Amino acid sequence: MEMNIEAAPNAGRRTKTKIREHGPAFTLLASPTTVGFASGRWIRVGSVDGWTGWLPEDEIEFEVVP
Length: 66
Known about the structure:
Elements: E1 2-7, H1 13-22, E2 25-35, E3 38-47, E4 52-56, E5 60-64
Antiparallel strand pairs: 1-2, 1-5, 2-3, 3-4
């Protein structure tokens, strides 16, 4: 699924940096899930420049691209 992602008002510096460096267009690689390295739910995304990573669900706002 293709989506445009923006940092939510409460987003941390890491989330804002990743979106600025690799976005705003991303592909969903894994549905929101809990992960072993942090609390909360995270989504795994990939960008057109080849970066893949996890972003915290509560720090992003997204719009699905038709």
